[in-house]
TrEMBL record:
It comes from Smutsornis africanus (Double-banded courser). It is found in: Endosome membrane; Membrane. Gene3D superfamilies: 3.10.580.20, 3.90.1280.20, Clc chloride channel. Residues 600-664, 697-755 form the CBS domain. Its main location: membrane. Keywords: Antiport, ATP-binding, CBS domain, Chloride, Endosome, Ion transport, Membrane, Nucleotide-binding, Repeat, Transmembrane, Transmembrane helix, Transport. Belongs to the chloride channel (TC 2.A.49) family. This is Chloride channel protein.
Length: 760
């Protein structure tokens, strides 16, 4: 027997081997990690490296490499996430235009790129060039007329169905985890839950490819949420290359937090917003060191995306705006109204979407994911094509709604009646009466708004990658633009009213409808996700509109207040609860007056707690206990009579220890005594060789007394990230409380179904 050496419950895990065997310290799928144990193991590793670094130059270099490995991982994540985001943007641009036509000079050019390269394009007809042909022109030689329209309509639907079918088939066959937004699962993983394969290489590859396909199909979804999942897959891949992260689940989650920041950075071109999003929305444990590294990863990712320049505007932002008019205090009232609309839309969306997703899970509908995707795609394409605002990609729609109407704008939204005597500078056009194009655009936007609200409810949650940021922003932008035009026309026709008299004189440029669209987009996104600080920062980074931060803050706060009045859960928390993940939300309050004894197991009438004794059980007894129960671990007591607590042994490590002992240690048989003490027990002379397992024993398990208030227990589980906590009285073991027990108790107290918490 090898000498035990230093006694530490979370250090080197085997006594009978010189080196720990494979898989020690790892966790089974769909289980929660032990944060305290992971932290302790990392501290031991760091202490060992520091002490060794003084022995030789080579050990000192190794310690430097270990210290820099975190920054190297961040650099690699930023480079890969930025590259993938750039490729996705370029591919989506091309494939979206492919539904309507093709470039004759180079089929891989999008409509815009094709017309850039043409020498025959004029400024007035910049969207029309001989090199770009619609499918009707190419196939039947006609660009106008009923037959051309029907052919283009038919091919638009066919391309959409083709893209969607290919996407859902790839997800179903190769990577089932590549579906959905990914953010609910990322939040759960960052809280310490294990979902093997969710951040794997196949998931990364299939999610990247199918994300291009589904966004190009014209479905009401965005690529921003899935890009966070893609970036986290990159983070998981690179962390597996460094033992510092691959062997410690706690350290790995620090990398994933930074990767989530890089994902938002490339999704919106918002590096600071990405860091704040990771901190506010997805991360569970976010030390200061992770903040710096998240900032670095987001910076590298944004720089990489800027180098690729997918939008062709030499800017990182997707919807760059340049308004020439300040906002006025009187406008805060419509901004707050848009906040109210955003909160109501968020509540409506969450309730309807969760009801539909629950129906999908509990009825036969869930058995036909491919058919569901095809039907929703067909409905979307058929209704979307006739309306110019739903036919184009959602990002282009938002960009147009955010735009200010300059002298060179050709959009219907800018069809105002001009004063022929106007001699004002080009960028300071006064408010004008709306022309017929604006009125046409208004009712088309109203129809598009109703369509987007309804179709997004059914689209989010299907078995394809689907983000929610862009559809939510589109709903808000459409509502905001319509409100903005209404306020603008009111100010123009009634400038003598008391509310307009002080700031809106005749011939002045008072109201910017694009600003209302921007505020509406922020309000609706806030209503759905319940983001506040990160949302405002993302919005002003996204648009470059730093001057308008107060309207954005007013709308974001109002939408959160209104939405919270109907329910505290955002869409991601709602999906976490729907899937039964063991997520203990830091934002949830527990105010009930229950005690640990009310929640612990075993309860009255239940079988006694399954325990191990310190020196009186055989290998066969331990194996039988493991086989007959499915618990994650077992308390170790002095004896079943005294029930004095010694420590806690993890199930997985008991199995591995016994298996390896049988293979590598002579004399260990089924009736060998297992002991967890420092010295072996006194045994009869012919007894088989005993098995010492002290080093897999956690000698300092977290304990509370039976009269500890549950409010305190919940707080301990949240802040320390515990898997389980033992309940004692005067050192005597009474029971155990697991994270699952805490979550079920909280659900019960909130009059919800406790059985909805399915995992440990």
């Amino acid at each position: 027997m090898v000498n035990a050496g230093d006694m530490n419950g979370s250090g080197n895990l085997m006594d009978f081997l010189d080196e720990p065997f494979p898989d020690v310290g790892t966790y089974e799928d769909f289980h929660t990690i032990d944060w305290l144990r992971e932290k302790s193991r990392d501290t031991d590793r760091h202490r060992k490296i520091t002490s060794k670094s003084k022995e030789s130059i080579w050990e000192f270099i190794k310690s430097l490499l270990d210290a820099w490995s975190g920054w190297v991982v961040m650099l690699l994540i930023g480079l890969l996430a930025g590259t993938l985001a750039g490729v996705i943007d370029l591919a989506v641009d091309w494939m979206t235009d492919l539904k309507e036509g093709v470039c004759l000079s180079a089929f891989w050019y999008s409509h815009e790129q094709c017309c850039w390269t043409s020498n025959e394009t004029t400024f007035d007809d910049r969207d029309k060039c001989p090199l770009w042909q619609k499918w009707s022109e190419l196939l039947v030689g006609q660009s106008e007329g009923a037959s051309a329209y029907i052919l283009n309509y038919f091919l638009y639907i066919m391309w959409a169905l083709c893209f969607a079918f290919l996407a859902v088939s790839l997800v179903r066959v190769f990577a089932p985890y590549a579906c959905g937004s990914g953010i609910p699962e990322i939040k759960t993983i960052l809280s310490g839950f294990i979902i093997r394969g969710y951040l794997g290489k196949w998931t990364l590859l299939i999610k990247t490819v199918t994300l291009v396909l589904v966004v190009s199909s014209g479905l009401s979804l965005g690529k921003e949420g899935p890009l966070v999942h893609v970036a986290c897959c990159c983070g998981n891949f690179f962390s597996s290359l460094f033992s510092k992260y691959s062997k410690n689940e706690g350290k790995r989650r620090e990398v994933l937090s930074a990767a989530a920041a890089a994902g938002v950075s490339v999704a919106f071109g918002a590096p600071i917003g990405g860091v704040l999003f990771s901190l506010e929305e997805v991360s569970y444990y976010f030390p200061l060191k992770t903040l710096w590294r998240s900032f670095f990863a987001a910076l590298v990712a944004a720089f990489t995306l800027r180098s690729i320049n997918p939008f062709g505007n030499s800017r990182l932002v997707l919807f760059y705006v340049e308004y020439h008019t300040p906002w006025y205090m009187a406008e805060l009232f419509p901004f707050i109204l848009l906040g109210v609309f955003g909160g109501l839309w968020g509540t409506l969306f969450i309730r309807c979407n969760i009801a539909w997703c629950r129906r999908r899970k509990t009825t036969r509908l869930g058995k036909y994911p491919v058919l569901e995707v095809i039907v929703i795609t067909a409905i979307t394409a058929i209704i979307a094509y006739p309306n110019p605002y739903t036919r184009r990609s959602t990002s282009e729609l938002i960009s147009e709604l955010f735009n200010d109407c300059g002298a060179l704008e050709s959009s219907q939204l800018c069809d105002y009646i001009n004063d022929p005597n106007m001699t004002r500078p080009v960028d300071d056009i006064p408010d004008r009466p709306a022309g017929p194009g604006v009125y046409t655009a208004m009712w088309q936007l109203a129809l598009a708004l109703v369509f987007k609200i309804v179709i997004t409810i059914f689209t989010f949650g299907m078995k394809i990658p689907s983000g929610l940021f862009i559809p939510s922003m589109a709903v808000g932008a459409m509502a905001g633009r319509m409100v903005g035009i209404g306020v603008e026309q009111l100010a123009y026709h009634h400038h003598d009213w008391i509310i307009f008299r002080n700031w809106c004189r005749p011939g002045a440029d008072c109201v910017t409808p694009g600003l209302y669209a921007m505020v509406g987009a922020a309000a609706c996104l806030g209503g759905v996700t319940r983001m506040t600080v990160s949302l405002v920062v993302i919005m002003f980074e996204l648009t470059g509109g730093l001057e308008y931060i107060v309207p954005l803050m007013a709308a974001a706060v109002t939408s959160k207040w209104v939405a919270d009045a109907f329910g505290k859960e955002g869409i991601y928390e709602a999906h976490i609860h729907l899937n039964g993940y063991p997520f203990l939300d830091v934002k949830d309050e527990f105010t009930h007056r229950t005690l640990a004894t009310d929640v612990m197991r075993p309860r009255r009438g239940e079988a006694p707690l399954s325990v191990l004794t310190q020196d009186s059980m055989t290998v066969e007894d331990v194996e039988t206990l493991i086989k007959e129960t499915d618990y994650n671990g077992f308390p170790v007591v002095v004896s079943k009579d005294s029930e004095r607590l010694i420590g806690f042994a993890q199930r997985r490590e008991l199995i591995l220890a016994i298996k390896n002992a049988r293979q590598r240690q002579d004399g260990v048989v089924s009736n060998s005594i297992v002991y967890f003490t420092e010295d072996p027990p006194e045994l009869p002379p012919n007894s088989p060789h005993p098995l010492k397992l002290r080093r897999i024993l956690n000698l300092s398990p977290f304990t509370v007394t039976d009269h500890t208030p549950m409010e305190t227990v919940v707080d301990i589980f949240r802040k320390l990230g515990l898997r389980q906590c033992l309940v004692t009285r005067s050192g005597r073991l009474l029971g155990i409380i697991t994270k699952k027990d805490v979550l079920r108790h909280m659900a019960q107290m909130a009059n919800q179904d406790p059985e909805s918490i399915m995992f440990n």
